[in-house]
Amino acid sequence: MKRNIIILATATVMTLANAATAQAACFAEYKAKRDNPLELFYDVAQISGPCTKANARAQLQQMLARQGLTLLKVLSVKNN
């Protein structure tokens, strides 16, 4: 019985560790611009959801539009 509890506890800890790894932060590196006068920006932002360029593009376009910026390009996405 004691052995079963140890095995169950170990499996639980490993499952929680895998879940924490799956929740790793995702960062997108991008270029943006503002017109009149022209200003160019390079920055890195944390995004939620899948760590893909398509997801980053969708989130960044909304976030940057609120700041009066236009997304030019998502350069890369990386999990941390």
Q: How does this structure look, described?
A:
With 80 residues, this protein is an alpha+beta fold. Helix content is 42%, strand content 35%. The protein has one domain (25-80). The protein has two helices and three strands, in the order αββαβ. The longest helix has 21 residues, at 2-22. It is elongated and about 70 Å long. The model has no long low-confidence stretch (mean pLDDT 85).
Q: Key features?
A:
SPOR domain-containing protein, 35% strand, 3-stranded antiparallel sheet, 80 residues
Report the C-alpha radius of gyration, rounded.
Answer: 20 Å
**Number of separate helices:** 2
**Count of all domains:** 1
**Tertiary shape:** elongated
In percent terms, what proportion of residues is strand?
Answer: 35-45%
Structural class from helices and strands?
Answer: alpha+beta
> Residue-averaged pLDDT, rounded?
85
Largest sheet: 3 strands, antiparallel
